[in-house]
Write a structure and sequence with these properties.
It is built from eight helices and eleven strands. With 296 residues, the chain is α/β, with parallel strands linked by helices.
């Protein structure tokens, strides 16, 4: 009988013990995701905080760049004129951070609904010279035209190494004939012996999960207007151009969305003004990009 009572007491205490890591995780949430933290005593034991207990609050600058899931989205941080021309971002964020964090919030939610890929709650913001870039197979770059992206020789060499070792770069949300040369000049430094080609519906990336037999131009929210008949129409800065760069083995390593704004379609997924069919397509293109990157 005494052993039975002791057993019952242990069962009673288990929920209390299980709650202790939760309290500690909440206390440390302002420091970003915590995966394993050493105890303060001399036992050198580690406690693991499950992703469900980690903070999901988006951060301007994630302070830990080690992936916390099978897929941890990464934004490419580049030097730009953001502090001058986009004062609302202050000195910490520039054009590279456009659409953050809503684009990530909705895209990651879509990935979780539509696939079995274990995904993090937020993105990491990574400069090209940071070794953490090699821990992230999918890199997202936005507004390279407005930001005037011009990688240094060292940055170009690092991005080249990343791409040729298996990385995948998506370039989105740049527009007009004045911004296309920004891409060309940057890619000539990054991949001088490779050619930018136009993609068609025959390319594998558009069929790796969803069969996307029509390459529809996806507008940004700013391109929309309400026509006289009450319908929502779009006026962009030129025709769409789905482009990319392949390596010697026929693997797509750079996907280019020109005169399109897929990030806006993710960002405004819950905005009744933004057309739902465009968001649905943007999810499918994004998921195809991701699965292609993780399987090639």
């Amino acid at each position: 009988m005494r052993r039975f009572l002791s057993f019952l007491m242990c069962l009673t205490l288990l929920p209390v013990v299980a709650m202790l890591p939760r309290a500690e995780a909440q206390d440390s949430s302002n420091r970003g995701p915590v995966r394993a933290q050493q105890q303060s005593n001399s036992s050198s034991e580690f406690r693991v905080v499950p992703p469900a207990l980690q903070s999901t609050t988006p951060r301007d600058e994630p302070d830990d760049e080690v992936p916390t899931a099978e897929f941890h989205m990464a934004r490419m941080v580049y030097a730009d004129g953001g502090a001058r021309s986009r004062g609302r971002f202050g000195m910490r964020r520039g054009w590279w951070a456009i659409d953050y964090p809503q684009a990530e919030t909705h895209l990651i939610g879509g990935i979780r609904r539509l696939t079995n890929i274990n995904s993090s709650d937020d993105s990491h913001h990574i400069q090209l010279m940071n070794d953490a870039i090699f821990d992230h197979p999918w890199l997202f770059a936005q507004q390279i035209g407005q930001g005037g992206w011009s990688p240094s020789d060292e940055e170009a060499a690092r991005l080249r190494e990343y791409l040729l070792k298996g990385g995948f770069l998506v370039i989105d949300d740049f527009h007009g004939q004045r911004e296309w040369p920004t891409l060309v000049n940057a890619m000539q430094k990054v991949l001088p012996n490779y050619t930018i080609v136009d993609l068609t519906t025959a390319d594998e990336v558009f069929h790796v999960l969803y069969d996307l037999d029509t390459l529809t131009q996806i507008p940004g929210e700013r391109h929309l207007y309400r026509a006289g008949d009450g319908s929502i129409q779009a006026q962009l800065e030129g025709p769409q151009r789905w482009s990319g760069i392949y390596d010697e083995e026929g693997r797509l390593i750079v996907a280019i969305n020109f005169n399109m704004d897929m990030g806006d379609a993710w960002e405004h997924a819950d905005d009744p003004y933004y057309p739902e069919p465009m968001t649905a397509l943007a999810y499918r293109f994004g998921v195809n990009y991701l699965i292609y990157a993780m399987t090639h």
